[in-house]
User: Fold these one by one.
Assistant:
Number 1:
Amino acid sequence: MTMMNAAVVTSFTEPPHYQPFEAPAPSGGEVLVDVLAAGLHPRVRSGAAGQHYTSSGTLPMIPGVDGVGQLPDGRLVYFAAGDDVPGTMADKALVDPRRSVELPAGADVAKVAAAMNPAMSSWVALRRRVPMKPGQGVLVLGATGNAGAMAVQVARRLGAGRVVGAGRDPGRLRALLPAGADDVVQLTGDAGATGDALAAAAAEVDIVLDYLWGGPAQRAITALLTARSDRSRALDWIQIGAVAGPAIELPSAALRSANFRLQGSGQGSVSPRGYLAELPALIGEISAGTIRVQPNVVPLADVERAWTSEETPGERTVLVP
Ligand SMILES: NC(=O)c1ccc[n+]([C@@H]2O[C@H](COP(=O)([O-])OP(=O)(O)OC[C@H]3O[C@@H](n4cnc5c(N)ncnc54)[C@H](OP(=O)(O)O)[C@@H]3O)[C@@H](O)[C@H]2O)c1
């Protein structure tokens, strides 16, 4: 038995502990890589808390859904972990070559590990779920987090004609303007004023990338559909994250009185093959700096501290074995 060091979740109510763990053994075409960096994404936290919709509930487990690793022949790859293998927050991880892609020479390992998960959320949504046509208008609901801020840049890069970012934090909202947003809307506790501001800035968009769900999304649906000049023109709402709540109440009239099309984007609604096909282009954008990211690099041995300390807004923690 070969041992390695890993972040190990032994209870869904505690952070992972850095401890020895049996290294996984490759089978059926898998390759064992040396992990170089793995991002601490919200999806990783929810998996480690047993709360993600893909969670099996089995403990102990190693968290981590993706990362950058070095193959035995020295090449570097970005890879997504399989559903039934240990996670990526360890010295070593199993890579299915069908879920990995080689990094271009000179790629920044920490930036790729930090950006792929949040950037992929909008990239895949706008290319695989609702292929965006050049010139279309996009509202990013929840644009102040990592994924939302990248969604503004992705929408612009993929040819959006108008991009509006909506979120709570005024400073992070202002930063979206030089990053590609045409307009920003602050979501405040005043539901009426927020609805009016959303309607004024985004009633005519074609696509909404929704990272919030919950009350803010519910109110935004009504505000946009009510203010839309032509309700028979399609409004594609893509549900991606749920930081503001797991459920909404959707009036049936919203679906009858407007051409409102609601769908989600994530693991399951997009196939592994669909994700893989998008990886090379997205890695190229991140490496070229078109999609900006600020990694906060932390040694894997400090995983407990990283887990419990608050992330600086705009940064994504990356654990390095
Ligand atoms: N489906 C997919 O493919 C996919 C992929 C990646 C991520 N996601 C999901 O997308 C979401 C965001 O991920 P992330 O990486 O951007 O996380 P993040 O960097 O932690 O950002 C989350 C942001 O949400 C904002 N927020 C929290 N509660 C809010 C509320 N009640 N109203 C408005 N804004 C609120 C916060 O900004 P303020 O404090 O400024 O409001 C925070 O910066 C997560 O749910 C994640 O699981 C989905």
Number 2:
Amino acid sequence: MSLREQLCAYGRRAVELGLVIGTSGNLSVREGDRVSVTPSGVALDRLTPESCPVVDLDGHLLEGDAQPSSETPMHLAIYRTTDARAVVHTHSVFGAVVATTKTELPPIHYNALMLGGVVKVAEYATYGTDELAASVRAALEGKRAALMANHGGVTIGATLEEAFEATRLLEWLCEVYVRALGVGEPAVLTDAQLAAVVERALNPPEFPRR
Ligand SMILES: [Zn+2]
């Protein structure tokens, strides 16, 4: 599957899973110094490969007639400063709830380690601006996910599949957190408990054969 075909496939999946509504949300994938990105103003389940523009890392249009997503400056800022090869941005419900009410998503489940532990909420700035790109980049430092105040969430990965799965995990963690807050005070895992999880993952038990 070409990179632009991947954008179409994961765009459809994002709509199916209810991670985006209307023409919100955008995805991109990088190969060398070329970034294929979803176009502006098109619902993610209505993309065609040809409708997805290709830009360079400075935002110059290289291929395609459509305008790149308005959030392209954020995607490019992430590519210029991390080793990410794909970026997924959505307005998923529980991510938006946490990003509207909290300053971070604490590690209430050990799977948060897959996103880098605590997920920070990037300071609010108008969509599409360099200010928003800068605040998201800062929140992403050393992480695979960030929430965006009063907006949504963003995840990165070595592939589009990885970035997309990180978005699903981020939304799941946010949903667990929000639902837990409705029941009581969620317990937050300690640094020692998280370190023990890493230790366990690095040294899985061996099951001897009979
Ligand atoms: Zn957005």
